[in-house]
Structure prediction request, 427 residues.
Amino acid sequence: MNFKRPRGTADILPEDQPYWGHVYDVARNVANQFGYRRIDTPIFEDTNLFERGVGNETDIVQKEMYSFEDHGGDSITLRPEGTASVCRAYIENGLHNLPQPVRMYYAAAMFRYERPQAGRVRQFHQFGVEAIGDSSPEVDAEIIELGWKYIADLGIKNVTLRINSLGDSEGREDYISDLEKYFFGVADRLPKIDRDRLNRAPLRVLDSKAKETQALADAAPKSVDYISGEAKEHWDALLVLLDSLEEIYPEFSYKVDHRLVRGLDYYNRTVFEFEPADAGSQGTLIAGGRYDPLMGILGGQETPAIGFAAGLERLILELKKQELPVNSSKGPEIVVVTLGDAGAAGAALASGLRAANVSTVLAPKRSMKAQMRYANSQNAANVVILGDREVATGVASVKSLAEGGGQSEVSLDVTSIAEHVRADGDQ
Ligand code: ATP
Ligand code: MG
Prediction:
């Protein structure tokens, strides 16, 4: 029998874990810096949550969900994104009773049935943040700053930020109708895929990946020309706040992009994306926006909210592409090498060291040379060599594997060995 992992999934092997450790560590740190606290929700939810909360017209609900009936006959879906679940949890747990806004983050696996390619897989991972319960533009700027700081703290360079405003539902109707008029007028120059989009979701024609559509989309009506009242004030205030971020973070900059829309139905007002300057179609690293209508759609009280989701696979691809160093995983402080009949004494020493919180691995019983090779392969800091003579005399050989590291005779007890390697490591 020959088992393979499912298409679009990955085994994250130990050698790749330093990259994952890096994207998770930096996510946690930056979230804490901004006062966002972690939330975990179930990996699967009631299918209806996503049909309602992501939107029936979206690619996600139309063709990307992993849905199944469980043994009780309920329709269950592996979560394709995090926002609907966080909002469900906010409503279900009465988080509107907390002082608002509630700032939360998650880092978790998501599932979408897509055509796998570089940066697009079926089980992928997102770091997402949500600020719920505050409609002010300061929060939009804060979320964008957080996304920026995350990428900067990861060490990734040359990322562009594009923003747009979709306005509120009032202005939207006029806008969409003018947009449709415009695109129908040039429909004979659109590729088939975009003619279909035009009928289903006219906004999505704007972010088409087809060159011929992009040229036409550049001249299309702009949603910011249709926003008015509070939505317009909000947008103007956000631009001022972003301008001041440009002064605080020397490398921060943004571009207003009239073609930027989001694939999820519930966004209003601010939308934004971070992508590498030389991005292809799998380029977007972080995508986010305001989703004030969503709580109401899910049956909660109307509650303004904004957030983003960062794709961790894509960030790791970018880390590798830019050849950024990540801390390689640390090996054990000690590998115990045993010779002759010292096996049992070696095992006891390893246990004693671990009980004293010194990370210790026992080398497999082979030749001295093979055990030393093993210790090196584990990135160990030291080896303790134990043969019949060492056991008899009560003195072990401790050898540092650091460059130019020496060898010393140390009394064969846990305290002496622990002290010796710790003193060595501190130098
Ligand atoms: P795309 O247009 O690339 O399909 P999307 O609009 O579907 O993206 P979102 O739902 O906004 O993506 O998800 C936010 C981020 O999550 C994306 O910008 C990307 O970094 C990441 N992401 C989304 N889908 C995948 C996937 N299938 N594999 C890997 N990362 C993904
Ligand atoms: Mg998608």
Observations:
- The first helix runs from residue 17 to 33.
